[in-house]
Description:
- The structure is a homodimer.
- By secondary structure, chain A is of the alpha+beta class.
- Helix content of chain A is 32%, strand content 24%.
- The first copy, chain A, contains 14 helices and 16 strands.
- Chain A has helices spanning 6-11, 13-16, 61-65, 115-120, 129-151, 210-220, 256-277, 279-289, 293-302, 310-319, 336-346, 397-406, 415-422, 435-443; strands at residues 20-32, 36-42, 50-55, 72-81, 89-100, 155-156, 162-163, 175-177, 203-205, 222-230, 243-252, 306-309, 351-357, 373-381, 385-393, 428-434.
- In chain A, the strands form three sheets. In chain A, strands 6-10-11-16-15-14-13-12 form an eight-stranded mixed sheet.
- The radius of gyration of chain A is 27 Å and the shape is globular.
- The two termini of chain A are 37 Å apart.
- Chains A, B: It catalyses: tRNA(Asn) + L-asparagine + ATP = L-asparaginyl-tRNA(Asn) + AMP + diphosphate + H(+).
- Chains A, B: Pfam families: tRNA-synt_2 (PF00152), tRNA_anti-codon (PF01336).
- Chains A, B: Residues 135-453 form the Aminoacyl-transfer RNA synthetases class-II family profile domain.
Amino acid sequence: METTLIKSLYRETKKFTDKNIQISGWIRTIRDSKSFGFIELNDGSFFKNIQIVFDDTLENFKQISKLAISSSLSVEGVLVLTPDAKQPFELRANKIVLEGNSASDYPLQKKRHTLEYLRTIAHLRPRSNTFSAVFRVRSVAAYAVHKFFQERNFVYANTPIITGSDCEGAGEMFKVTAMDLNNIPKKDDGTVDFSKDFFGKETNLTVSGQLSAETMALAFRNVYTFGPTFRAEDSNTARHAAEFWMIEPEMAFAELKDYMDVAEDLVKYIIHYVLENAPEEMSFFNSFIDKTLFDRLDNVANSSFGRITYTEAVDILKKSGQKFQYPVEWGIDLQTEHERYLTEKVFNKPIFVTDYPKKIKAFYMRENEDGKTVAAADLLVPGVGEIVGGSQREERYDVLERRIEELGLNKKDYWWYLELRKYGETKHSGFGLGFERILMYMTGMSNIRDVIPFPRTTGSAEF
Amino acid sequence: METTLIKSLYRETKKFTDKNIQISGWIRTIRDSKSFGFIELNDGSFFKNIQIVFDDTLENFKQISKLAISSSLSVEGVLVLTPDAKQPFELRANKIVLEGNSASDYPLQKKRHTLEYLRTIAHLRPRSNTFSAVFRVRSVAAYAVHKFFQERNFVYANTPIITGSDCEGAGEMFKVTAMDLNNIPKKDDGTVDFSKDFFGKETNLTVSGQLSAETMALAFRNVYTFGPTFRAEDSNTARHAAEFWMIEPEMAFAELKDYMDVAEDLVKYIIHYVLENAPEEMSFFNSFIDKTLFDRLDNVANSSFGRITYTEAVDILKKSGQKFQYPVEWGIDLQTEHERYLTEKVFNKPIFVTDYPKKIKAFYMRENEDGKTVAAADLLVPGVGEIVGGSQREERYDVLERRIEELGLNKKDYWWYLELRKYGETKHSGFGLGFERILMYMTGMSNIRDVIPFPRTTGSAEF
């Protein structure tokens, strides 16, 4: 007999009602009395379980009723509607086969576990309700990202993970090497001889695919990356991981305004798509993780995002009368307290803050006419602060060259990036969205370690 | 005026015929006579260009007619059908604005360039016909992979890139470190003190997400990874890169046969999807890269893949009378010459070869009843040889433990992998498909360096 998925039973109940079917899955709970028993079975296809009812007409009744949680079964039986019960239907078993045993010390017993404890059993935690919901939402959201861009004719660009260029300039990098660390080849002056390494030069893990993505945008017009990026920053916070996934679109013939339009559409699209395609999981988060979740997402998905300049933002903050830990002056980098005040107290919806002082932004952002600011914009959302950062890119060869020199960077490292401006300079814009950041926002999970299957953080690369 | 994409002009020609429209893009070719000129413009949205006709009624006629290739323009004009010409329509310009200049030494002039040369200008080569086609097909194929699995309710699992576990056992690994290589902390015995490194232990770049994916499959039933993997193998061939993307599905409650069904469906799905969604690019490959391409793909997409055991394959090869460089005996690892003989001369279609000797396969593959073979299967396709490898996984705790010991591996490294068998052991299967390998197969490109935007190979990590 063909195996039916529990997801199908919930989505197409009618089709299976009063029919004999076969399912397979893992025991989530089991209780028995003398002559009958109940099993909550989960088959991984769906967030919810199905209730199995079995009794001592089964020849292996005794064996089954003593099974440990997480044992795997295949079950044949009739699907019966149960309009008076909590669950919509149950399976009345006429045959249960034990597929695989579980030990009685299975760590995920029915009682509540702390998230900290569950991190120590990362190989088992996807079987818990919380992480079943988190990682399915992660998958659905990832697909939403691809769907959004592919339907808009963006080309998916796989930019390199190992980078030989030192010019990404977005933070501390991990080194990649094939050398024997106990016996590193040295040059005459005693320093490392990278010419003996695998690539014949020093290489690192990428911190951003942006610069490579720009080369693709100037061929395909609209492209996006979606892949892992890395920071070797020793910041042991709930919001930082050493390995995380970034979405980095780049668009030719696009100005700052165009980037903001696409970013706003993207954020709304992901939220709508996940609400529609993982409703059980999202209800779970709203009930058990963050009771304000639906209100929050609703506000983002259905409001028109605000847009103010950095200069206006600074004015608002200065006039607010609010006491901030970091005092506000034109020229400072906005802190999370400022960002949250603006988006939560002043606007009560997501806002883009645009045209930041060039001193606090990267060399590749397009200089505005005023000579003081750049065409950059960050998207701030209530409850979190910054969630997207982007800019129009400096497409003018001479201005870019000057900025590289002003910042004391080495022009030689940027030869190919500069050549993009020499051969068909074209205005273009792009942004970066941290995938884990939007997952945390959408699930209410407050630690980045809990939205990545096997997180890598300072001092921890387990599993 | 809104900008229209060239893709829309080709896909919805009627809508724009005889209308005044605006487009923007880069000059691919330009020629002029005294009073008029022609520009082939490409806007990145589509493989094909549009022909722009302009004349000296434009006030900047002289400026435009002297522009270098790759300069970017925005053009307003009327779209006119040209039924007698090679191209279906042209744009009669009434306004051309220079968006960005290109230098006259632009390296991608109209003449043919070798693929080797184009690799040295990887930041510009996506603008050539060949690489425009390759990288768009790469994007379309990637989306096909996600679509295939998401529509079948598989959960996308982002398995870690940085791995602290030494147990993947699929080849040489790159080391990842945040230590200063010029000043590596040492222990008293003179060896590296990894406790001082970022993660407090030795870490590497993953060679496979499989073991992590198995943890997810035993929660979600059906999962897949799709991400970068790495090999530090010093093999300077046309088929090996140090960084490449792998698709690794894992399925609980699935036997070897089920894996083969899914792999066959997947390969056919990707081919169909790409043929349907990138027809211009695929025609280009069939005309200019490999004239047997369509026949080859047709054969794969429309045949029912064969299935034979390794033992049968060895018999066929031995009885073939064919002279092989590597003689055939039961127990050998099949070489490409053997694989190609089987799939090209004997079957003339893709075949799965199953049940290999356990001595030549990995420890995690399920041991068959005969004690000599494992439930593994490789998919061989004409023209290439192996394209997919997979197996049923050993779910029996005691057998897996024995295999780990037999191979002299360290049981401690596998504690969590073994625990998957302790807590709800469940039969399951999975496979790996090298993304670049299927891209090479589908495009006819014969060097892996030419299907990756910025390839990383022995001695080369440019850009």
